Amino acid sequence: MFAVIKTGGRQYRVVPNDVLEIGKIAGDVGTIVQLGEVLVLGGDTPVLGTPTVAGASVAAEVLQHKRGAKVIAFKKRRRKNSRRKRGYRDELTVLRITEILADNAKPTIGPRPKKEKVTAPAEAAE
Asked: What GO biological process terms does the UniProt entry carry, in alphabetical order (predicted)?
């Protein structure tokens, strides 16, 4: 089963366990967020929304918040000794899709537990 969601003015085709970067959304790292603008629910019998599918949503776990690559906007007017250099970085959120929900269902899968680092026990010096 797949879904086409819309967030941040862009559309994404997602399936469970997909990891994607979208524009920054509210939510702490490790929490589950629901994305409600589902345009298409695919599977054996696809459901097309007009404009969205009623009662459908996608549950996703927030993995991290980060900044994208730097984009440089450089403008130069030749023979005028005029230059302008500006740059910016997009704010991004990395999500893992946990499940695709229909009929106003609530997420059943919670956030995954973090793996603890295994450290070797220090031997006592005698």
From this structure: translation
Strand 19-23: give its sheet, edge to edge.
Answer: 19-23, 82-101, 57-77, 32-35
| C-alpha to C-alpha distance for 119 and 125, rounded to whole angstroms | 18
Q: Is residue 17 part of a domain?
A: yes
Residue 15, both tokens: 């399936």
Q: Give the model confidence (pLDDT) of 75-91 as tens digits.
A: 999 999 999 999 999 99
Kindly report, residue by residue over 17-76, the tens digit of the pLDDT: 999 999 999 999 999 999 999 999 998 999 999 999 999 999 999 999 999 999 999 999
Report if residue 114 sits inside a domain: no
120 falls within a domain:
no
12 and 21 in contact (C-beta within 8 Å)?
no
Range of the domain at 59: 2-101
Residue 17 C-alpha from the chain's centroid: 12
Q: Residue 80: left if φ>0, alpha if ψ -120 to 50, beta else—which one?
A: alpha
